[in-house]
Amino acid sequence: MPKNSKAVKRELDDDVRESVKDLLSNEDTCDDSFKKSSLIVGGGRGDGEGKELSLNGDMDVEDEGSDAEDDAARPAWNSKLQYILAQVGYSVGLGNVWRFPYLCQKNGGGAYLVPYLILLIVIGIPLFFLELSVGQRIRRGSIGVWNYISPRLGGIGFASCVVCFFVALYYNVIIGWSLFYFSQSFQQPLPWHECPLVKNKTTMFVVPECEKSSATTYYWYREALNISDSISESGGLNWRMTICLLAAWSMVCLAMIKGIQSSGKVMYFSSLFPYVVLICFLVRALLLKGSVDGIRHMFTPKLEIMLEAKVWREAATQVFFALGLGFGGVIAFSSYNKRDNNCHFDAVLVSFINFFTSVLATLVVFAVLGFKANIMNAKCVALNTKKIVALLGNEVSHDLIPHHINFSATLSAEDYQQLTEILRGVTEKDYPRLGLDSCSIEEELNKAVQGTGLAFIAFTEAMTHFPASPFWSVMFFLMLVNLGMGSMFGTIEGIITPLVDTFKVRKEFLTVGVCLLAFFIGLLFVQRSGNYWVAMFDDYSATLPLLIVVILENVAVAWVYGTDKFFEDLKDMLGFTPFRFYYYMWKYVTPLLLILLLGSSVIQLGMTPPSYSAWLEDMASEKSLKYPPWGLAVCISLVMCPLYILSPFVFPTQLLLGSVPNIPSLAPSPGDLVDPLVDRTGQYWCKQ
């Protein structure tokens, strides 16, 4: 946005004063109640201060400068492309790579895409469009936007900031983990390629913990995290992960310190690079044996599963979090747009880019997992073939072996399946005593993994079998870092922008302060028990509070401000009236679906006792443990803290903001006959 000269500033001031005189000259045409009302001019524009006109006989014009000047002084995106990349980078995150493929596999394969698309249209796009619109119209962060509609709704913005901070605390830890694996990938072979050997006085043997699990599992839990057996055993700081966490927060701080002027430039790389990597991985994976098996397994529809209520609930939750609704990042980014930007086009475009990115990531993940399943199946066949050879002449007769099967050569998966079916048919009762595994590719693919288990265990194991595996490992973890950074920029912007708009502090100082505070609190997550804290925050810090935040956002616009009035603002802002579809979605359908989603989430939370998966070193396996009493208290606090702030009765934000100038309230009341609106030319007009 260009900077105004002094001449332009004076001209804008004159325009405002002339419009004021025009309003006062028509004073006698207005009702008596109108004369006693107060018109706030320019209250919704940028960071500027409103000018209050008392129409009760006297005129008091505050001379703190034109609101248009502050509008021009507000940072703006250098281009539409930069803004779209910022929104895409924020909405497309780690969940698209390691959550969506898992849900797709778990909930009916290709059939899962149907409920996801339906809910994207009736929940995702309308709410995304709503957040883009209010941010662009009012040009403030989440606190100022909802306080603009009603001072009693300012708590929505504060609750969003708190949830953003909670999420940022553990999300950047995951980026730190990715940085660690990225730094360890410049080795041939990769350090998680095989189990380490331990040497005693006479012999060398494999580490028992690794032998009982796998090389990648051992490396993740023991070498990377050095994890403790429970959340109660802190085990002290993991110094390598502490350094990685410091590096992650330093990167975020440097990218965000100048606001969108600095982070916007980084977006060109952080938003586009993951697509380059995903396409390269897809091409490479399709050239590997077994990749088609994975893709076929992925998209084979299981229509009966699609009718289950759980599938729709999980699809709605994924839509909700995939677009970053309720965090305040969407509002913050859109507040730096010009008011005549077509935010409806942006909402549809970013939503479908997000969806197709999830599908692309799913193709990549299951192409690679199909390749891994074939390798694991070949190992299983080889191991069980040795068992059959050992049983020949004793438990298994030579006459049962088909003539075309040659044990001196490598047995194919098809030959092994044929052989086991023969043995099962002949020795039906005694077959379990043979100890033979089924060795099925389908069974291997059905071992659903998500989150860190997919990224740091299953995928890393598959990459060890790639030719030039260090190169692909570097690319993969650099992609994870960029996906995480794009989401972190939006999350931090959701904290910084509303606080800067509200309290008028220097963005540089606030950014450094927030990053330092988050780093020191984040040391909790780089203890040996840190992985359990990450799981706790991931489970309890965001889901319920954000659902309530978004419900209140929807109600604030559709019922407090008014859908009809909001449609008029959109027509003034966009130059056209949006589809009537959004009217019914905002006013009736979306709030109802969100309330149903909230109810089902509360029921699920109540039916599932709080627990976490602990890694037990002696057993070399995971075990579900209940949280200790203090852990339950922390879980409850994570849920209740944002909800406490949401309550206008215990957190009267209007009193807090009353001490801060420039936060006007334009909430409509029954006695108001005037609604101040601002058109795109900067002229103020009165709508009777």
From TrEMBL:
Range of residues in the leader sequence: none
GO biological process, one term: L-leucine transport
Organism (species): Oncorhynchus mykiss
Binding-site residues, Na(+): 89, 92, 96, 354, 483, 487
Main location: membrane
Taxonomy, superkingdom: Eukaryota
Gene Ontology MF term list: metal ion binding; proline:sodium symporter activity
Any one cellular-component term (Gene Ontology): plasma membrane
Keywords recorded for this protein, A-Z: Glycoprotein, Membrane, Metal-binding, Sodium, Symport, Transmembrane, Transmembrane helix, Transport
Pfam families hit by this protein: SNF
Bilayer topology: Multi-pass membrane protein
Protein name, per record: Transporter
Positions with biased composition (Acidic residues): 59-70
Region (Disordered): 40-71
Homology family: Belongs to the sodium:neurotransmitter symporter (SNF) (TC 2.A.22) family.
InterPro entries linked: Na/ntran_symport (IPR000175), Neutral_aa_SLC6 (IPR002438), SNS_sf (IPR037272)
Presence of the UniProt keyword Repressor in the record: no
Keyword Transcription on entry: no
Localization, UniProt: Membrane
Alphabetized PANTHER family for the sequence: SODIUM-DEPENDENT NEUTRAL AMINO ACID TRANSPORTER B(0)AT2, SODIUM/CHLORIDE DEPENDENT TRANSPORTER
Chain ranges passing through the membrane: 83-101, 113-134, 155-182, 237-257, 266-287, 315-336, 348-369, 471-497, 509-528, 540-561, 581-607, 627-646
